Each structure stands twice: as C-alpha cells, then as structure tokens.
Amino acid sequence: MKKLSIATRKCPICDEENIEILYNLNMVLDNDFPLQGNHKVVKCEKCGFIYQDSKSTLQDYENYYKNFNKYPSSPTIYEETKELFPYYMNIIDKFGKKDSKILDMGCASGLCLQFFKECGYENLVGIDPSNESIDELKKKGIEAYVGSVYCNNELKFLENKFDIIVLFGVIEHLFDVQNAVLNLDKYLKEDGIIYITAPNVERYHGYNNSISYYFNFEHINHFSSTSLNNLMVKFGYVNIYTDAYNLKLGDCSVPCFSGVYTKKDRSSDELKNDEESVKSVKKYLESYKKNINEQKKVIDDIFRKNEPIIIWGAGCVAMELLSRTNLKNCNIEAFVDNDRAKHGKKFLDIEVCPVDMLYKFDGIIVICSSLYSSDILNEIRSMNISNKVLILN
Ligand SMILES: [Zn+2]
C-alpha cells in the first residue's frame, strides 16, 4: 500500500509537498554530527522525482561539507574516479575546443582539471567550498577559488565567462538544486554548455549495492535523465546529449549517467512524469529485503553467543546497522578504521581506533563497508592475524 505524506523538504525540482514514502532509513551518528540520522527515501507525487526527505536544513549541509567533508582525506576515492577522466574528456571534446574556458564546480582537489590540463585544455577554473582543496589546485598551477555552488558575490568577475561548466558527481549532494542551476547559469556564456554527471536511479535495481551506499545522508537527490531534464528545462535549458556509464568504486559498480545541456530561447514548466525511477527503487528495495534477513540472522547469532567483536569500518554501513539491528546490543569492544579523521570519535559511546589494535584482539572482526570489503579482507590477511572475520554490507 502507498504510504502518502507531506514532505519537510519539498520536491527539489517542482516544489510539490505531497510525497510517497518508499523507505525509512535510520543511522546512529556521533554526537557532534551536523546532519539528521533519520531520513526517508521519497517520491514526489507530482513529477516522480526520488529524493531524501529529512529535517536537515541547507545550513546543516553547508556546515557538514565545510567542516566534516571526508573527501580531502580519502585518496582512494580520487584514484578510482581517475579511470573516468578520459570518458569525461571524450564528451567535452564533442562540444568544446582546447581553448574553451571550462569551470569545474565542486572540483575537490582538482585531479580532473589536472588531467584536462595534461590533455591540452588551457583555460581551466575550479571552485570548491574546501580551502584545502583549492590550495592543492593552486599548487598545481590551476586557477581556483573557494566558493559555493549556490552564490558567490566575490566571484562576480567570473560571470558570463565560461563555454563549458562541469558538475561531476555533485548534484546528487545538493540540498537546493534549483538555486545551484540559477547560479551556474550566471557563469555560462550565452552559447555555453553545462555537463552534469550523477548516479542513475533508473538503474539502481540492476546492482547489488548496499542500501547505505545508495541512500546515505550525502546522496539526497536520485536523478534519472527524465528528472534532470525536468530540472533543467525550468531554467531554460535543453538536453543535447545523454549517455550511461558505470563508476567502479572498490567492490561496487555504481550506475551513472551524463547529461549535457545548452540554453534555449525560453524556459518551460512542462514536467514529464518520471515513472521509471520509482519502479527501479521499488525493485531494488524488494531484492534488498532478502539481504536484510540474512544480515539479521548473522547479527542475532553474534548477539546470542555474546562474543566480543570489533567493527572495521566506522561509516554508513555500521551507522545504519547499529540503528536497525541487534548489532548495537552485541559485545562491541571497539570500532577500527583506516581513516585517521575518524579516530577518537565515538558511536554509542564506543571509540573508533586505529586498526593496529586488532593485534591485541582475539574475537570476531566484523567488516562493515559498502565499497571496500575485499580491500579490508586483504589487509587483515596481510596482518597475519587469525581472527574469525564476518562481512556485513
Ligand atoms: Zn516534483
């Protein structure tokens, strides 16, 4: 049966308040975390857009990305996205020239811009909210500014300057996508193009990725080419190119798509109802229920035996399992993680430690990672320890 409700966060594309709730996702977060641990995966009843509804505000997200931004300390993620740079450049080559002026909005530490530079593009600019990221880019000799995707009064001199604006893996994170497009529009020349990539919700069901990867608190918009078109036509853009590709991250393959847009004469409020996205999410959730039941059995077994465990991976998978399952009642001695930024933080009053504490531990190691279970397993093998290991994701 359909669970209808009124949204706290209105549809980011069409501002509709009426939603269908598809899934309630809860996560245990550490105390100073700026975002809400519970959110709903919902479908807009008017345009069919799939997005996350929660009580977190735009300010909460700004605070999160400024102060809790995990990307500068996660070099692996950069390394893996590198594989896609030639693909991105192929598409840019179709629409631009080597002297085209290109803006990478949300450029992180700018590896992609660096690749474009090596391939002969000369006029490159990056904007990102992170000071560290922008410093790194400047060191590489690329023009870069600290700024937001929403509004930058101090960057007025960049308005109407760009032939191409790229937004790679950014739009799924944005609380206010309409404001973001309005802002991008300011920087674009009249005959320029905007190139956007995002995970493709229409294909979620074909991949066995964990629920806390698809619907974590960062991925709050779930676009399809139909819903992205709905957003862009509202601001006077027309789609001139669409393509599907996959992003390989650790053990996962993430279905994504590319959309290229140019300005047309007038904007339109004509929404196409996106019917495919909700079908995909429902199919995905249906198959995920089986996985949930298997997880539950494994966790209940650990709980019954009261064996000491250490959880490797203080991220979304653990946060979600701690909230939904008996894992929180198990005999957890510690969390361990390779990410130094997480050391000393606490979940349910249990500390996150460096992984070398496993040398002093005899119990079960429970791997909680949506992307890197294989890497962690290899690391455990290379440590020459003989603990029993379980994987939950
Ligand atoms: Zn809508």
TrEMBL record:
Family annotation (SUPFAM superfamilies): S-adenosyl-L-methionine-dependent methyltransferases
A single GO BP: methylation
InterPro entries per UniProt: SAM-dependent_MTases_sf
A molecular function GO annotation: methyltransferase activity
CDD domains for the chain: AdoMet_MTases
One Pfam family recorded for the sequence: Methyltransf_23
Keyword tags: Methyltransferase, Transferase
Protein name: Methyltransferase domain-containing protein
